[in-house]
Design goal:
Blueprint: H1 3-23, H2 31-50, H3 54-75, H4 86-101, H5 111-115
């Protein structure tokens, strides 16, 4: 799937998951885990749509699937050992931000290092 379409799909599903959690699952799941999953999914779907760097975009997309996906699963009652996988998703998200930070050249600019004359 095209990464931009995947990012849009994650945004669409983030809104759907937020609504589903707030209404259909209210009081039935760990609401803090659910809200965290939705929040990270939405922010990183937007980030993936905004960045031009393919590496950062793909890291954000994969990071959301792993990070938010495991949190959704845990909130729905998956085995607690799955929580050991969640930080891998977090590391992928961090790697996406690092890719943006250290990016050189490209249509979207030269990254934060050049912006701040670093």
């Amino acid at each position: 799937m095209n990464p931009d379409k995947a990012a849009a799909a994650l945004g669409f599903l983030g809104v759907a998951m937020g609504a589903f959690g707030a209404h259909a699952l209210k009081g039935k799941v760990d609401e803090e885990l659910w809200r965290t999953a939705v929040s990270y999914q939405m922010w990183h779907a937007l980030a993936a749509m905004a960045v031009a760097a393919p590496l950062a975009k793909n890291l954000f997309l994969l990071g959301v699937v792993v990070f938010s996906g495991t949190l959704y699963a845990l909130a729905l009652g998956a085995p607690r050992w799955l929580g050991a996988v969640t930080p891998v998703g977090g590391l992928l998200l961090l790697a996406g931000w690092a890719a943006v930070l250290f990016k050189k050249g490209g249509a979207a600019g030269d990254g934060l290092l050049k912006h701040f004359n670093l």
